[in-house]
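Need a sequence for this fold. Nothing fancy.
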């Protein structure tokens, strides 16, 4: 699934909080490792879907919905 398709799927199931997984672990693509996450967040915001993007292994509290673009400090 592309990031935009993942957002569309989330919209179709009417999920309450979108927590993307399986991205940024390995740099295998021809794009930067963080590009899919940035596209995902942009598409989710445009679709008014609540999203949280935890660091790999980070515990997520459902009441804390910050955590956007943490990867900008690691590029």
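Here you go.
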């Amino acid at each position: 699934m592309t990031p935009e398709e993942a957002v569309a799927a989330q919209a179709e199931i009417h999920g309450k909080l979108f927590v993307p997984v399986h991205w940024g672990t390995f740099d295998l693509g021809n794009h930067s490792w963080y590009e899919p996450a940035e596209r995902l967040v942009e598409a989710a915001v445009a679709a008014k879907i609540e999203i949280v993007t935890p660091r790999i292994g980070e515990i997520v509290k459902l009441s804390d919905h910050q955590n956007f673009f943490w990867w900008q400090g690691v590029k």
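For context: The chain has a mean pLDDT of 83.
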